Amino acid sequence: MNDEIFFERASKVLAACRAKGLMVATAESCTGGLVAGALTAIPGSSDVVDRGFVTYSNEAKAQMLGVPPALIERDGAVSESVAFAMAEGAVLHSRAGLAVAITGIAGPGGGTAAKPVGLVHFAAWSRQGPRLHVERRFGDLSRSEIRKRAVEQALDLLLRLAGEIKVTV
C-alpha cells in the first residue's frame, strides 16, 4: 500500500466527519500512531482530529484509556473486548464524537496458536451509539505490511462508522 492510498482514504474520512461535524480520536497499539499520522498528514485536519492515543503497553491502555486491567488479564490485550474498551476510552477521554481502536500482533514474534502473528482487532465507537468491530487475520506478512493493512482497515472502519451516524439539526 502506498502513501497515495493512505492520503485518499484519510481524506475521505476527514470529509465525511467534517460534513457531520464530528471530531475523531484514535487509540492505537500495534500501529503505534500510524492512523493518527495518516489523518494529520492531510492539511486542515485539525478541525476533525482531536487526538491520538498510542497505548502500546497494557499499562498505557489502563492509564490513558481506562481499560480495566482485569479485562486485559481475562481476554488478553489482543481481543474484541479490549478493542472496544480502547475505542470507548478514546471517546470518553477526548472531545471526539467517534474513535477507532487497534490492537494486534504485528510480529514477527509474539504470536501463539490461539492468537497468531497477523491477528488484529479493530473497534469503532460513537457517542451517538453505533459501534463496530472487525477481526482480521492478515497471516504471515511482514510487520510493516501488517501495520499498513491495519491502517487501511482502521480508516475504512472510521469511514463506515461516520456514514452510519445521523446528523441532527
From TrEMBL:
<dbReference type="InterPro" id="IPR008136">
    <property type="entry name" value="CinA_C"/>
</dbReference>
<dbReference type="InterPro" id="IPR036653">
    <property type="entry name" value="CinA-like_C"/>
</dbReference>
<feature type="domain" description="CinA C-terminal">
    <location>
        <begin position="10"/>
        <end position="160"/>
    </location>
</feature>
<dbReference type="Pfam" id="PF02464">
    <property type="entry name" value="CinA"/>
</dbReference>
<protein>
    <submittedName>
        <fullName>Damage-inducible protein CinA</fullName>
    </submittedName>
</protein>
